[in-house]
Structure formats: C-alpha cells, structure tokens
Amino acid sequence: MSSLSIIAPAKLNLFLHINGRRPDGYHELETLFVFLNYGDQLDFTLRTDNQILIECENPELTTQDNLIFKAARLLQNHANITQGITIKLTKKLPMGGGVGGGSSDAATTLLALNHLWHCDFSNEKLAELGLQLGADVPVFVKGFAAIAHGIGEQLEAVNLAPSWYLVVHPNVHISTQAIFTHPDLPRSTPKINGPWQEAKLYNDCESLVKKLSPEVEKTLQWLLEYAPSRMTGTGACCFASFAEEADANKALNALPAHWQGFVAQSVNISPAHLELNAKLNLL
Ligand SMILES: C[C@@](CO)(OP(=O)(O)O)[C@H](O)COP(=O)(O)OP(=O)(O)OC[C@H]1O[C@@H](n2ccc(N)nc2=O)[C@H](O)[C@@H]1O
Ligand SMILES: Nc1ncnc2c1ncn2[C@@H]1O[C@H](COP(=O)(O)OP(=O)(O)O)[C@@H](O)[C@H]1O
C-alpha cells in the first residue's frame, strides 16, 4: 500500500466539568466525547525520501507548526523510519472551535502512518505518543466515544444512542489557553458520583466564554429556540441536538449568514477507525 485517504472527524464535548487544576497548570476534567461523521480529509502518499510535506489550500497549515507535521515527525523518529510522506489536507472543520480538528488531524496521521510505514504500534502506544501533542489526541487515536478523566486521556467507553447535531461556529476565535488560564473559570465541580446519565451536566467553560464573547451568547440563544444546546470544549462552536436529521437541516437553513454551521450525526466509533479498518480488510 503506498497511499491512503482517511477522514479526521470532529468531536463534541457533550458535557465538560472541571474538577481541579494540577501543579503543571493542566486541568482535571470529566468530559463526554462523542464523534461526528463529519471532518477534515487527509490523503497520504508515501515518499522515497524522508521528507514530510503538507499540501493545503491554506498556506498557514503547510508549516511545521501543523499538528499533522508534528505527529508524522514524532512517529518517524520514534520508529526510526527512513521513508517520508506527502499529506494533502482538505480542511473542513473550523479551527480553534472546540471540535478538535487539529487533534483529530494528528490522530488520523498517527493511525494512517502506523500502517503505511509498517510501525505496527498498538493504539495504546499511539495514544501515549499522541498525548505529547495534545490532551485531546488520545481519544481520537483510541476511537471510541468515552467519558474522559484526568486531563482527558483516561477513557471510559460509553455507548450512546445516535443523535443529529447542528454545530454552529460564531465567527469568533476563543483560545483554549486563554480560557484555561482565566481567573474566573470555575475549577471545582465535584466528580460525578453515580451514573453520569443521572447527574446535572453542563460545560464549565460556557458562562465565562459567553461573558467574554457576546457572539457565543447570541449563538446559544439562537440555537435554544430550536433544541437543547450547549458549547463544545472551550468554544467557540455550539451545538443543538435533534432526533431527526430534517429538523437539524431546517434550523441550518435558517442560520444567520454571518455564522457557519454543519449538520452531522454522532457515532460511538470514530469514522477514521471505520474507514481504516474497511480499507485494510479490502487488501
Ligand atoms: C478543552 C478541550 C476539551 O476537549 O478541548 P478544545 O476546546 O481545545 O477542543 C481539551 O481538553 C483541550 O485539548 P487540546 O486542545 O488537545 O489541549 P492541549 O493542546 O494539550 O492544551 C491547550 C491548552 O489548554 C490547557 N489545558 C488543556 C487540557 C486540560 N485538561 N487542561 C488544560 O489546562 C493547556 O494548559 C494548554 O494551555
Ligand atoms: N491540523 C490543524 N488543524 C487546525 N489547527 C491546527 C492544526 N495544527 C495546528 N493547529 C493549531 O491549533 C489551534 C487549535 O486548533 P483546533 O484543534 O482546530 O482547535 P480546537 O482544539 O479548539 O478544536 C489552531 O488555532 C491552530 O493554530
């Protein structure tokens, strides 16, 4: 196999509780991750030299700062690989929007290159490597919907009924770091005691982000007219959940022109894993 095309799906944090702060500044979380069947597209083609090249319409994403580059370099060094790779990125996910695009791109890169370069590392090992790139990378590498503990890397699988989501990106950028270092962020939500389905669920970042960004507040107010809604991660994207695809699309069609949105279904298994397995079984 010399080439492979794999999706890098979005995630939503259906709830996000912050339980504390570690001495290194990272936060102890409890969060429910679910994948969406919508994401970036990554096309991998093996090279005979050892270069790692990224092609993308957005020149900002072709540099060595891209998590895709960092993931490829990390694996190449870790497994002493002499081959290189050209990766074409078709960016569909809003950047810095709380849907995990960068982390998902990095995870899909680790999963695809593990096969193309014949590294044969377990997903456990890839997740361990991925954690060096970001707290959100392991869940995409493991590829199952989960409640995460710790800083987001300890995963407890869950099985959720599928739902349709309208995800809206208000045209504002919220920096994850700015939220996690803000003095007004609530950091002492108690750990859930008992079944999570019976707990009061929310996103601890939401009220702070709404205060800092009135556009996020307006987005949530608008979505709440249609369905139960919440912010994902540290924002700025917000989502509304629907039982029927048609209702989600109806709301999407009414979306004010200054916001962007997409409709997607939630899935318990990452579409990246489903695609990879389907392609490998074909060979
Ligand atoms: C908040 C979450 C929830 O899923 O998502 P996003 O809103 O970014 O998508 C994640 O935990 C983000 O994961 P990720 O974006 O990979 O985080 P990193 O690159 O490791 O860290 C970005 C910044 O957030 C802080 N951070 C991250 C995770 C965490 N548990 N505690 C933190 O304090 C880090 O200190 C860093 O300043
Ligand atoms: N492949 C990538 N896709 C998107 N952003 C990336 C990527 N690689 C690095 N980044 C950087 O990471 C930041 C956060 O990206 P992203 O994962 O989209 O946000 P979030 O975790 O909030 O969903 C971006 O603002 C960008 O500077």
Automatic annotation (TrEMBL):
Q: Which Pfam families match?
A: GHMP_kinases_C, GHMP_kinases_N
MF terms per GO, please? 4-(cytidine 5'-diphospho)-2-C-methyl-D-erythritol kinase activity; ATP binding
Enzyme kind, highest EC tier: transferase
The chemistry this enzyme catalyses reads: 4-CDP-2-C-methyl-D-erythritol + ATP = 4-CDP-2-C-methyl-D-erythritol 2-phosphate + ADP + H(+)
Q: Where does ATP bind?
A: P94, M95, G96, G97, G98, V99, G100, G101, G102, S103, S104
Bilayer-crossing regions = none
- Read off the InterPro entries from this record: GHMP_kinase_C_dom (IPR013750), GHMP_kinase_C_sf (IPR036554), GHMP_kinase_N_dom (IPR006204), IspE (IPR004424), Ribosomal_Su5_D2-typ_SF (IPR020568), Ribsml_uS5_D2-typ_fold_subgr (IPR014721)
Q: Which family does it belong to?
A: Belongs to the GHMP kinase family. IspE subfamily.
Q: Which PANTHER family match?
A: 4-DIPHOSPHOCYTIDYL-2-C-METHYL-D-ERYTHRITOL KINASE, CHLOROPLASTIC
Q: What is this protein called?
A: 4-diphosphocytidyl-2-C-methyl-D-erythritol kinase
What organism is recorded for this protein? Answer: Pseudoalteromonas tunicata D2
Q: What are the top taxonomic ranks of the organism?
A: Bacteria, Pseudomonadati, Pseudomonadota, Gammaproteobacteria, Alteromonadales
Q: Which gene encodes it?
A: ispE
